[in-house]
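Subject: Aminotransferase class V-fold PLP-dependent enzyme

B.,
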Amino acid sequence: MITHSPDMTRAIRARFAHVESCPFQGPRIFFENAGGALTLKSVVDTSATFAAIPDNQGRDNPASAALVETIRKSKAEMAVFFNAPEGQFFVGESGTELLFRLIRTAVMGSASGGKVLGSTVEHPASRSAAQHWAELAGKPYVSVPHDDETGQVTPGAYAERVTPDVRVATILHTSPVTGIANDVAGIVREIRAVAPDAYIIVDGIQHASHGRIDIASYEIDGYVVSPYKVFSRHGYGVAWTSDRLSGLSLEALKDGPLGNWEMGTRDTGAYATFSDVVKYFDWLGGEVSGETAPRARIEAAGHAIHAHEKELTDAMLHGTGNLPGLADLPGITILGGVDNPDREGLVCFALADIPAAEIVERLNAQGIRTHVRKADHYSGNVLTPLGLDAAVRVSLCHYNTLEEVRSLLAAMKKMVG
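Prediction pasted inline below.
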C-alpha cells in the first residue's frame, strides 16, 4: 500500500508539480483535488513542446505526419486506460461541453416521443443538459431521487422510474459534492432490462482520478472526463462514444466523413498530455504490482489508489494517534454518512457552530487548501435537502499523505476548541 512505503510516496509526489507549495501562496497542503488535481510534470513539458509546433494535421510533411501519429497513439492508449476496445475517443472544449454534445445528440437523434431519465444527485453538467434538450425535444424529463443519507442513487431507485419509452438516460459515476460513487453497471442493468435501446451517457469527471474505469463492462453509449481533474491540464475534455451513438446525425461539415465528432483542428497537445496520464497509471501499476500488461498495470494502479485513499479518508473521519477524527467533532454533519464503503477520496462536512466559509478561510490561513460548496446551482441538489446552506469539501488524491491528514485534524481540533 502506498501509505506504508515512504519511498513510493516520494516517487509519486516527485512526478507532480506544486505538491507542497502554491506559486502564489507559498507552502500549503492541497486538499482541493475535486476542483482540479495536481498536474503531472510530464504534462507541463508536453504542453510546452506541442504549443511551440506551428504545423497542422493532414498536411504532406513530416511534422504533420508526426502530429497525426501522436493523436492516433493517444486514442489507442485511451482505449486501454478506459478499457474501451470499441467506439471512439475525441477531445472537446471541456467535460461539461462534451456532456452537452453527447446528450444533445442522443436526445435529438433518438426516436420521437419517449422520456429522458436522470437523477437528482447529478452535477448540472449532465442534469442541465438532459433537462434542456428534453424540453426542446418535447420528451418529458424523469428525475430519479437520490438517497440524502448516503449521497448516492441506487440501481433500485432507477428501476422504480425507468419505463420502456425511456430514450436517453444519464448517470453520475461519482459525486463531486459527497465523494460517493454510484453503481454504474448495476444502474445500467436496470435501465436495459426495461428500455434496452436507451442511449446511456455517464459523467465520469469526478471518478477518473481515482482509477478503476471499465467501459467494456458498463454497456453504455458515452463516457466523459475532464483531464484537469485527472492529472492533466485545463482546456480540453475527453469523451468516448459507442458506435451506436456515433451513428446518429452529428453536427459536421457537409460532405465530411461520417461519424466524425471532431470539429475543426484538434489540439495535438491535448491528446499528448492525456497519453502522459495513461503512462503515469501504467508506471504506478508496475510499481505496486508484478503485472506486465498495460491494462493489468492500470487496474493495479486503480486498486492501489483506492486502498490508499480509503486509509486517508478513514483517518480523516475516525482520527489517528491522539487526534480525533472529523466524525468526533461536536455538531458535525458528514455528507454521505461516516462509514460509506463507496466513498472515493473525499469528505464533505458541515459544523453547526462555525460557517463553512469561515472554516475554509481559517484552514487556508494555515496553509491547508479546501473548498466551500454552497447550496447553489452546483450543489444545492445535495445540500438543500440536508438543511445545509454550505459545506466544507476536503478532497484528496493518492499523492496526499497521512501527515497531511494529521495537519488538517490538528487544525480542526484547535478550531473547535
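The CA atoms of residues 226 and 351 lie 31 Å apart.

T.
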